[in-house]
Prior knowledge:
Rossmann fold; 222 residues; 17% strand; alpha/beta; two-stranded parallel ribbon
Amino acid sequence: MKVIITGATGMIGKGVLLECLDHEAVDRVLVLGRSSVGVQHNKLRELLHDNFEDYSEIKDEFKGYDACFYCLGVSAAGMKEERYTTITYNYTLALAKTLHVINPNMTFTYVSGEGTDSTEKGSSMWARVKGKTENDLLNIGFRQAFMYRPGAIIPLKGIKSRTKIYQFIYDYFMWLIKLLEKLSPDSIVNTTDIGLSMINVAAHGYEKNVLRPKDILITARE
Length: 222
C-alpha cells in the first residue's frame, strides 16, 4: 500500500507516520508539508509545498497512491472563524478534490474531533466547520472515506504535541488521563492506535464512516 500523510510534524500525524514506516502492509510513504519531519527511512519521501489551497503544480506527484491520511489541523483557541475555516476546510478540500481526480479509488481518512457538529448549525464555531468538512469529504466520491473523532489521545514513542496547552496537560496531568483510561478503556486512544486503525481501514474497510474512540480501538486491533 502506498500512502500520503499530511500533518506529519504534529502529534497525531507523527504517530501515523511512525506506524506506517513500521508496518509491512505499507511500502511507500509520501509526506506532504511545509517543513521536513526530520525522519530518515527507505520507505519515506517528503514533498515540501507552501500553498495548501493549490496543488496544480505538484499534482502529478500524487499518482498511484492508495490512501491519504489527512492529519493536518489546528486548535481553534483564539482563532477567528475565517482563518480557522481556511485551514480546516479550505486546505482539506483542496487536497481531497485534487486527489479524487487523480486517484478516485483511494481511501481518504480525516482527523476531525469528538463533538464535531454534523448538522453544521450548532453554536460552536469549530464544531460547525469540522462538520462541514466531514460532510463534504464524504460526498466527494472516494471509494472509502473515514472521519476520525478520537477525543483524548495519549502520545507514545516520544511524540510531543506542538500545541503548548496540550503538551502542558500531558506533562502534568498524564496521571489523570491514565486514570480515565482505566475507568473507561474504550474512551481513550493513543497515537499508535490511530496509525494502525488508519492502515487497517484503508486495507480492509469498516462498517462506519465516522470512527469514535471505540471504533478506532477495534480497527487498530484487526
